[in-house]
Structure formats: structure tokens, C-alpha cells
Amino acid sequence: MRLPVLVFDIETMTDLKSGAHLYGLNLPEADLEQALTKLRRQETGIDFQRLPLHEIVCISGLWIDELGAMKLFSFSREQYSEAEILKKFLSIFDKKHPTLVSWNGSQFDLPVILFRAMYHGLSASSLFDQGEIDHQKKYNNYQNRYHHRHVDLMDVMAMFNLRHFQKLDDVAHLFGFPGKRGDGGYHVPEYVRLQQWQDLTGYCEGDVLNTWLIYLRWLLLKGQLQLQEHQAWIQASIQLLQAHPQHTDFLKIWRETSQQTEFTASDFHHLN
């Protein structure tokens, strides 16, 4: 494993102000989202809003430093504006050049970050440089799907074939991990409206944790981790969660779900 590693995920909701400006809508805020959804259905047949209109309300990450120390964190609208969330996240890349790990990050998270950073007039050369500034990034940058600086697990596990794309929730359950544990993604706007910040960050961090556990299994498959190393990282992840009371439920469901998959069942043998 090439350290440091940053596993990340974002949560978004529709930017009503920008949507109204884009479509020339003069409606009360209460009616805007319904109008934007209707317009999107007319355009594409689906509700999923175009990427530039995804306002970021949370970015969560799991940071593993050069010595293997692990830190779980979130930047959310509880404390920061969208621009401040982006500034804090992007500043990580000014200081370090981690291996970036995501699920569908190439198709969603990074393009949304790009659009929203441009919307706020931010600079993010450390993340988006493709060799124009740092010549080495011409051959290994965060955008090229065949480079290893950013590992989009959904993409690489589908062998870069969109017909083989899988949902994070399904793969996590298949491997004996907790998965998304409900339909929290549909409730992100409600979490923000009701200021349920712990629910918001808990949901986003849950996706990060599932992605991390799948990444460890991916490294085992690739031979970049030996079995004993994989087991050591799993135990370190359990210890991390034991120190985060807000993830007691994640740990409990992981222990239960692990018993449905023979290989993963050994994750908690030391606690029996």
C-alpha cells in the first residue's frame, strides 16, 4: 500500500439558487426543487440532477499517514460554508500527495468538486494538475482513470467497463461489510434542513468506511497486501471504530454481517 492514503466521499443536495438562475425560474424556494426535478426528468428521464447543481454539504475522509496512523474526519455545513468545506479538503493536497480512494469518484465526486470549486473561484492545482505545472503528473495524476494516484474502486473492479459497475452497498454486503444501512442518501437534504449533523456525517463516514474495507480486499487481491497485513489493517480499523462512539452501530452491523461471508467471519474472532 502506497501511503499516505485518503479514502473520501461527498454528500450533496440540489443548489436551488444556481438551478433557478440556470433555468430562469422565478419561484418561491419551496417550489424550486420540484420544478428543477421536473425539468431534469424532461431532459433525461431521471431525477438525478446535473453535476454542477450538486451543492456539497459534507466531505468525509479516512486518512492513513505514512506511519499507518488512521484518522476519520468530516467537514460539513454544521460549521462551514460550501466554499470553506472545499478549501479545507483541497488544502490536504497542497501539503501531501496521497493515494486517493473512492467509490464512483471519477464519475461523481471529483467532477462535482471541480464544478463547485470553479463556482467559488478556488484554485486546486495539486488535485487537478495533469502535468502543466508538475511534469511528473503527466504520467500519474488524479484524473486519468488508468493511473494509480486515484483509485476509483467502482471503476477498477468493473475493469473500466460501465456495464459491470456495481453499487457500493451491494459489494459491501457481498463481502460481509455493513453497507449503507438504510436509505440515508435520500435524506441528506432533510438532515441539512433539520440540522441533523451527526446523521449527515455518520452517513458519509459510513460510505468512507465501506470503501476502505473494500479497498483492503482489493489490495489483497492484487498482491499489494499479504494476508497477515490485511488482517492487521482490519484489526486497526476495528480499533479505530471502537474509539468513535458514533460508529457503534457500524461496528455492530459489521460483526453481524461478517458471519454471512466465510472469509470475513474471521474479522471478529479475537473478540469471541
From TrEMBL:
One Pfam family hit: DNA_pol_B_exo2
The organism's place on the tree of life at top rank: Bacteria
Signal peptide: none
GO molecular function term, any single one: nucleic acid binding
Limits of the Predicted 3'-5' exonuclease PolB-like domain: 47-252
InterPro entries: 3'-5'_exonuclease_PolB-like (IPR019288), RNaseH-like_sf (IPR012337), RNaseH_sf (IPR036397)
Name of the protein described by the UniProt record: Predicted 3'-5' exonuclease PolB-like domain-containing protein
